[in-house]
Predict the 3D structure of the following.
Amino acid sequence: MPNLQNPVFATYAIAAALMILKAVAMSWLTVIRMMQAKGGYRSPEDLKRTPLNPAPNPAQLQPNERVERIRRIQMNDLENLPFFLAAGFLYVLTQPSLALAQWLLYGYVVSRLLHFAAYVTGQIHEVRALFWSIGSFILIFMTVQSLLVALGH
C-alpha cells in the first residue's frame, strides 16, 4: 500500500502536489490578467456593474490575448495533468528505484514548468514543443513500464 513513508511514493506526492498547485495557480493568473486588462471576460453576467467592474463595457467580452494565452496554458495543463497523476501513481506501484522515480517524476515537473515559461513568454512553437515532448515521453515511459510490470504478474 503506498504511503508517505515510502520515498518513491513521497516523490510522487511532491511532484503531484506541485503540478496540482501549478494548475490551480493558472486559474488565479487568469483572474489577475482579466482584472489588469479589465477584459477577456467570457460570460454576459460579467458585464454587470459591480465594485470590481464599475464601468462595464461590451468590449470586455472580446478576447484579450494576454488573458487567452493564460487560458491556453491552463487548457494544456488540464489536458496533461490527469495523465500524469494516473501514470505516476501506476508507476509508483511498480516499485521503481528511487533515483529513477525522482528523475522521471521531477523531470516531468521541470518539463511542465519550462513549457509554461516558454508559453508565457511567447517562445516559438519548437521550444514549447520540446518541453511538452519531454513530459510526454516521461508519461509514455512510466505507462509502458507499468503495463509491462502488470502483464508480468
Remarks:
- The mean pLDDT is 94.
- The domain at 7-151 is CATH 1.20.120.550 (Four Helix Bundle (Hemerythrin (Met), subunit A)).
- The two ends are 17 Å apart (CA to CA).
